[in-house]
Design brief:
mainly alpha; about 70% helix
Length: about 100
C-alpha cells in the first residue's frame, strides 16, 4: 500500500532521500565504488549518470564532470586523489564477473 502523497510531496521526499544518500556517501568515503558495484550493482558514478540523464530529460545540459561534482561534492579527480584506493585482484575479478552491460 502506498501512502496518499501529492506529486509534489513525492518529489520533495525523493529529493530529501537523495540528498541524504549523497551526505551518507560523503561521510563514507572509505567505501570504494568497486565495492558498491560488486555488492549493489551501482556506484557514485552511476548516481551521477542518472542525475545527468534526469537533467537532460528536462532540457538541462550537464557534462559528465558537472554531474560527478554534484554527487561527489568536489571535482571527481580530487575525490579520487583523496579517497580512491587501488582495487584488489579479487575486487577486479568480481567486477568483471558481474559487470553491468553499460560499464
Amino acid at each position: 500500500m502506498t501512502p496518499d502523497l501529492s506529486p509534489e510531496q513525492q518529489r520533495d521526499f525523493e529529493a530529501a532521500a537523495f540528498r541524504r544518500l549523497l551526505a551518507h556517501l560523503s561521510d563514507r568515503s572509505d567505501v570504494q565504488n568497486i565495492d558498491m558495484m560488486n555488492l549493489a550493482g551501482f556506484c557514485r558514478n552511476c548516481l551521477a549518470n542518472w542525475y545527468r540523464d534526469a537533467a537532460e530529460g528536462a532540457g538541462q545540459v550537464l557534462s559528465k564532470d558537472e554531474a560527478r561534482e554534484i554527487v561527489y561534492g568536489m571535482p571527481y579527480a580530487d575525490w579520487q586523489a583523496r579517497n580512491q584506493t587501488e582495487a584488489s585482484p579479487q575486487q577486479k575479478a568480481a567486477f568483471e564477473a558481474a559487470r553491468p552491460h553499460d560499464h
